[in-house]
From TrEMBL:
This is Ribosomal RNA-processing protein 7-domain-containing protein. Residues 83-120, 235-264 are annotated as: Disordered. It holds the Pfam family RRP7. InterPro entries: RRM_Rrp7 (IPR040447), RRP7 (IPR040446), RRP7_C (IPR024326). Signal peptide: none annotated. Gene3D superfamilies: 6.10.250.1770. CDD domains: dRRM_Rrp7p, RRP7_Rrp7p. It comes from the Eukaryota. GO terms for cellular component: CURI complex; UTP-C complex. Residues 8-172 form the Rrp7 RRM-like N-terminal domain. PANTHER family: RIBOSOMAL RNA PROCESSING PROTEIN 7-RELATED (PTHR13191), RIBOSOMAL RNA-PROCESSING PROTEIN 7 HOMOLOG A-RELATED (PTHR13191:SF0).
Amino acid sequence: MAPCPPTIGGFSVLPVTIPPLPSFPRSVLHYLYVRRNAPKIPAVDDSRRLFLTNVPVDATEVHLRIVFATLVGVGRFESVTFEEDRRESRTDAQPAQAARLSAHSKKRKRENEEAERAAEEAAACLPSTWTRPLRKSGSTAVVMLADEKSVDQVLKAIAKVHKSKKYPSWGDVDKFGAGKAPPPLGSNWLKAHNRLSYPDKDTLQTSIDAFSVLFAKKEQEAAEIAKRMRNEPDEDGFVTVTRGGRNAPASKNEAEEAKRKMIEKDEKKKEELTDFYRFQMREKKKEEQAELLKQFEEDRKKVWAMREKRGKFVPKS
């Protein structure tokens, strides 16, 4: 196979030696493509990040830590975020909605409630059945380094690797005191998966109990929100009378949306304390609309007067 050039399409090419395995007893080269991280939405630490693509399927933080230690020494590599981790964080996070829902409470209390809810949801989940994840072929990762200088050093070291032909070795976990090696793959990995797929009775019962408690808590919150929403008057002061039907929103999203509307309505009430009665608020809105129309008519008359004064006004026949 012909050697890969040092750069391709703005990426620095980093050859990595894959040592022989029992399933494939021959050493091969794998090419990582590296460039400075430049996302569509810039972040504060982008100058310290490197974007990697064509990450090996068995990649772990330990593997990449060793590769970067081989290039620029230990102490430069801080962390790595793989493509799957970034996708999960975007799915789970709802920053705008969470901020609106928590704006009415104190910060410390809000943090405690969020921590408790996260602990409850974690307890309600069964443990992972895979001891080690496998990446998609050609997946990406973002590596965080110690500083911006480390980024420059890594890119320069990649250029030197092509001249020296001393490529980093993939999976050399004993080098540089990397610590505990990642869980093995192969038959041991599949055996561990088969064992974890059937958890013991105590672990399963604990997860079921935690899930039931969390589900009942969410149902109670949804019912309270629905009850309050039925008693909340609309902007004109009317309360919708309902009979029968369900007592709570159909899903978590509906409950969260109802809660958000309630919080927004409460905040609006606080701003409108000066006009206590509904009819006063309606009259005030009418006065504001009339004032806007009056101002619009005055501005239009001024524009016509200026055009007539300049002699550019041509009346329509």
